[in-house]
Amino acid sequence: MENAFTSAEDFLQDDSFLRYCMGISEEDIRRWEDWLRENPDRQASFEQARKIFDVINGQQGQLYAAVGQFRLLLREHVANTTAQAPAALTPPARGQQRRLYWWSAAAAALLLISITGWYQYSRYREQQQIAATPPAHDAKPGTSKAVLTLADGSTVPLDSAGASQFEEKDGTRIHKSQGSLVYDHSGNTEEKILFNTLATPRGGEYQITLPDGSKVWLNAASSLRFPTRFAGNERTVYLNGEAYFEITPDTRQPFHVQLSDNQQITVLGTSFNVMNYADEHNSTTTLVTGKVMVSRPGGQQAVLAPSQRAVITRGQDHIAVSEADIEKTIAWKTGMFEFEDDDLPSIMRQLARWYDVTVVYEGPIPDQHYSGSIRKTAALSQALRILQTAGIQYSITNKTITIKNM
User: Fold this and answer.
1) Distance (Å, rounded) from C-alpha 204 to C-alpha 68?
2) Could you tell me which residue ranges the FecR protein domain spans (predicted)?
3) What is the C-alpha separation between 53 and 47, in angstroms, rounded?
4) CA 184, 237, 195, 281: dihedral to nearest 10 degrees?
5) Are 308 and 350 within one domain?
6) Residue 357 to residue 280: CA distance in whole angstroms
7) Count of domains in the chain?
């Protein structure tokens, strides 16, 4: 490392240090842990920089895990502090300008602590002690893994390692490669339609190309039942959980997604996301491109245009249509968790499925909403450290996350 890192401001100027604080890079975490072991005399400045980072990044209850976002918050601190500070008697020397810039941000952070009162400061110090202590238990992020159940009931464990090919009894060839399956029904000679089921566990996801060329990304704790070939005048698959679809257009064979609550989605050729977990309050269909129709037993229907979503609350038949945040909706498919004004339980349900953990609450659940981003490649402790900057206290024991009374 070229920087001498003799003061807190030196650390806060380094992108690698900021990524370490955010817990979004295993490489940077290892790098700074090694650096601390080699430079114990600079630990005080290191810890001071981390405290300044945590206060600035977490003061608004945000979960942002991006260097650029922290820079923005820091600039806002500097601007606010400069506007409120009395005029200097003499201008700083040119060589002092950079140092004064960064220490003004530190002063703003310390001012924030002082005005929040002793109670909040004590809570903050407790959070720092928790963050500084390595978790007794941790969980690795999910991976590409699933189980394929063939028509005869036999199962094939799947992961992201290696490539292979096997056949169903009707001659359908199934290719496995790098966390995905591709179905080729050209060798299928039987008239009888066979069904397969692809199921991801908690902590797993998988991709499949169906016999018609349509692609499906299956999120954690989900399953998709589908035929080894599409025959007749329609194509129908059965989904539990969450999946993103890119459907091959075929006006002669409309595509249907049947959900566990008898909800049906009719497609001609489009891309869309369906979230229908049993532990979620709402079932949501979000259209990215094309056109879909969402229908319920009893005749309720809603036709979606791109960037719209249909939401059905559990136990109700009404279909509510509204504008959708596409980037947030399909973030899971691109390796991110994206939150936008989400409550804590909904955030923790997503993390629980991906890290295969259980979440319990001690005392009342915080009535707050959060926004931000977390990379799905982060270990559980890294993801929770990001949550902690928003004032959320927790402990991890035997794959159980306990959210403590705030």
Assistant:
1) 30
2) 197-292
3) 10
4) 130
5) no
6) 16
7) 3
Euclidean distance between CA atoms 286 and 271, whole angstroms = 9
d(CA 282, CA 280): 6
What contacts 72, CB < 8 A, 6 or more positions away?
none
99, 132, 165 — which closes off a domain? 132
CA–CA dist 92, 95 (Å, integer)? 8
Close Cβ partners of 366 (under 8 Å, ≥ 6 residues apart): 344, 392, 403, 406
Residues above pLDDT 70, as percent of the chain: 77
pLDDT attached to residue 14: 84
Of 150-154, 297-301, 387-391, the range with the highest mean pLDDT is: 150-154
C-alpha 29/C-alpha 19 separation (Å) is: 8
Residue 342 sits in which domain range?
331-403
For 320, the enclosing helix (H) or strand (E) is strand 320-323
Burial of 100 (0-12, 13-18, 19+ CB in 10 A): middle
- Distance CA(168)–CA(179), nearest Å, equals 19
Look at the alpha carbons of 9, 11, 16, 20 in this order and tell me if their dihedral is positive or negative. negative
pTM for this prediction: 0.70
pLDDT tens profile 136-165: 567 888 999 999 999 999 999 998 777 889
